[in-house]
Amino acid sequence: MVFTKTGDTMHMNELIIKKRNGLAHTKAELKYIIDNYVKGDIPDYQMSAWLMAVYFQGMTDMETADLTMIMAESGEQIDLSPIPGIKVDKHSTGGVGDKTTFIIASIVAACGVPVAKMSGRGLGHTGGTIDKLESIPHVNVALDKENFFNIVKKVGVAVTGQSGNLAPADKLMYALRDVTGTVDSIPLIASSVMSKKLAAGSDAILLDVKVGSGAFMKTLDDAVQLAETMVAIGHHNGRQTVALITDMDRPLGQAIGNATEIAEVVEVLRGNGPEDLIHESITLAANMLYLGGKGAYEDCVTLAEGTLKSGRSFEKFVEMVKAQGGDATVLTEPAFAEAAYKKAVLAPKTGYITHMDAEACGRAALALGAGRYTKTDALDYKAGIWMLKKTGDAVEAGETIAYLQSGNESTLAEGETRYVNALTIEATPPVKRPLVFARVTADGTERYV
Ligand code: URA
User: Fold this and answer.
1) Catalytic: which of 89, 98, 170, 203?
2) From the CB of 189, is ligand 1 less than 6 Å away?
């Protein structure tokens, strides 16, 4: 059955049936769907049915590439050419405790590679870079274009919220996917991420594709497939693109929340902080430096490590916060990330933590006030979790394994139950998982396990 040759009148109900039956759309059909959805001429119920059909039937590489371009072209496309140098963007597919953007953007900018970063807010159990940045008093996360460009030119780095008109198709579709069980689909994630990256205008893109219990991709094979799809889209559109597959089977670092995560960023930038976060940040920063033309990958690792140790990346972070109107003096004050109420979580038994359900840890932080249940919820910036023991660590019954904090005492009980239930404690230690599983470039996939 052929419904829509080019030139035929298209009808959304026929296009839904076509995808439901497993057929591939033409570019004209995809354009009809996206453009009319953005205009409000296709209702949410039909778009939801189509998204579910895509979820079950998938898309060809050609359909995914076409969909991405149509979504990128649905709004403003930023021209970063007035900013000199190779502009490198970075995107994470979303995780718990993932505050690497601030660390790597500071390192990379301190090495002279400009970073013009547009980021999003938290979604579901995953934290949002913009929410974390906003925990610093007075910081402006809604920079207008002129200010954004000027800060990147002067300081080398700026982090701002996404302009309302950047890939508006994605904004609408993501909100619908979030409530219709259609987020974790490879063509839908790939087109969502890459449409924003293409529209944001950087020359090169580093993708951090998370895999594990706290990620949308639960298996390594799915994560590799998603990474390969996104790298191919970037490459076909003339953007050098590299993806790293990194672990999200436990939260990253020791802090989950907003101010708590910024406090941990400051710790790392001042030469301290947890090993997993440092290692992952150096790996990501080195890949960004490589994309920014700073030499062979091994040399970029040395450069990233040296810059972090020198303290120049902390100075760069402070410079960025000040340029965005923020009060950087609070960053080194303990009170910055201290909430009114604090509760110790005690190990329920002796053994080893063999697994942390990262999504459940994120939901514990959400219950404390660190995230939103509805779009309009106000955040408690100081709410969050400090994890003292993580996967692989030995624990004694009754020992403090984490601290929960919140501005609302009544949230602590739910936070505690959720956090304790997220942990598995067993008699023998678990097999160690790597932090970085694979690196995907246009030349192929290098698996480290
Ligand atoms: N991040 C995005 O930007 N889009 C998705 O679909 C999933 C993660």
Assistant:
1) 170
2) yes
Point out the catalytic residue in the list 18, 87, 132, 177: 177
**Protein residue with its CA nearest to atom 5 in ligand 1:** 189
Task: Identify the burial level of 157 via C-beta atoms within 10 angstroms of its C-beta, where 0-12 means exposed, 13-18 middle and 19 or more buried.
Answer: buried
Query: Which residue type sits at 104?
Result: I
Q: Tell how far the Cα of 93 is from the centroid of ligand 1, in angstroms.
A: 6
For this structure, is 170 an active site residue? yes
Q: How many angstroms separate the CA atoms of 196 and 200, rounded?
A: 6
Is any atom of ligand 1 closer than 6 Å to the C-beta of 339? no
Q: How far does the centroid of ligand 1 lie from the alpha carbon of residue 168, in Å?
A: 14
Per-residue pLDDT tens listing for the chain (449 residues): 444 445 568 999 999 999 999 999 999 999 999 999 999 999 999 999 999 999 999 999 999 999 999 999 999 999 999 999 999 999 999 889 999 999 999 999 999 999 999 988 876 677 789 999 999 999 999 999 999 999 999 999 999 998 778 999 999 998 899 889 898 899 999 999 999 999 999 999 999 999 998 898 999 999 999 999 999 999 999 999 999 999 999 999 999 999 999 999 999 999 999 999 999 999 999 999 999 999 999 999 999 999 999 999 999 999 999 999 999 999 999 999 999 999 999 999 999 999 999 999 999 999 999 998 876 788 999 999 999 999 999 999 999 999 999 999 999 999 999 999 999 999 999 999 899 999 999 999 999 98
Ligand 1 atom, smallest distance to 188 CA: 6
CATH 1.20.970.10 fits 12-58, yes or no: yes
Determine which helix (DSSP H) or strand (DSSP E) holds 121, and give its type and residue range: none
Distance CA 152, CA 163 (A): 16
Q: In this structure, which residue's CA is closest to atom 2 in ligand 1?
A: 193
The conformation of residue 271, written as its DSSP 8-state character, comes to T
Q: Does the C-beta of 94 come closer than 6 Å to ligand 1? A: yes
The total of other beta-carbon atoms located within 10 Å of residue 254's CB is: 22
CA distance 428 to 287: 36
* CATH number, span 337-426: 3.90.1170.30
**What is the third-level CATH fold of 88-331+436-442?**
Pyrimidine Nucleoside Phosphorylase; Chain A, domain 2 (3.40.1030)
Residue whose CA lies nearest to ligand 1 atom number 7: 189
> Is residue 343 flagged as an active site residue?
no
397 Cβ contact partners less than 8 Å away, ≥ 6 residues apart: 346, 347, 348, 349, 350
Q: What is the pTM of this model?
A: 0.92
Known catalytic residue at 177: yes
For ligand 1, is residue 212 a contact (CB within 6 Å)? no
Domain ranges of the chain: 12-58, 88-331+436-442, 337-426
Q: Identify the active-site residue in 192, 281, 313, 406.
A: 192
Q: Is residue 192 in contact with ligand 1, taking CB distance under 6 Å?
A: yes
